[in-house]
Amino acid sequence: MTDVITNHDGLILEPFEIRVLAVLAEKEGLTPDNYPLSLNALTNGCNQLSSRDPVMSLADSTVQDVLQTLMQKKLVNGITQVGARVVKYEHRMRLKWTLEQDKLAILTILMLRGQQTAGEIRARSGRIHEFASLAEVETGLQFLIDKYPPLVARLPLAPGAKEPRYAHLLSGEEVLQQEVPGAYGTAPEGVRRAGQIEQLEQQLAQLRHEHEALAAEFAQFRKQFD
User: Fold this and answer.
1) CATH code for the structural domain at 8-179
2) pLDDT tens-digit series, residues 106-136
3) Is residue 11 very low, low, confident or very high in pLDDT (cuts 50, 70, 90)?
4) Which of 17, 181, 197, 205 is buried deepest, with most CB atoms within 10 A?
5) Distance between CA atoms of residues 173 and 3, nearest Å
6) What do you get for the CA distance between the two ends of the chain, in Å?
7) Spatial distance between the Cα atoms of 36 and 92, rounded to a whole number of angstroms
């Protein structure tokens, strides 16, 4: 039996833990003015319909329980800000695994969206981190692969595929067994067309999300002059 590959400190994280950590890291980059996150904001981010695979529906109580577990694992901090009524939360992945922002962005995308190619990671990293080239993404991926124990794995090139896919190892080897639709062989025209439509819908959802984030930032900016 193959030994299970674990991340640093031998941690094996559950899917809900992966989602909570990834959302904290994503929102830190997308909406820094609203970070750290309240429980309500974090729950909304976990249940977001766009840029998530799989889509989840978590209750506040579930997210609260997950936060407690992650704080015990020293992956999350709870912060009580002066004058604030609620506790807010921030991730500690950057410190825990000594990650610069580009590596953290790559890991975050893999945690939020599942297996990805380097090109998909670059296209979907958005304002978490702006990669100047595909080579920068590949360098970051190699760094995460070379860490001991590794945080990311390069998957075998599927028949008919032009680019390898990558997966995070925060859940152990189980994530490597997930099949990617259309990854093997040549998909029928209808399937390819459906995949193209789904990709366009995802891009549109991402644009809408970015628009909402910009609108929120602008509204916050206007409050300074009210």
Assistant:
1) 1.10.10.10
2) 999 999 999 999 999 999 998 899 999 999 9
3) confident
4) 17
5) 9
6) 65
7) 11
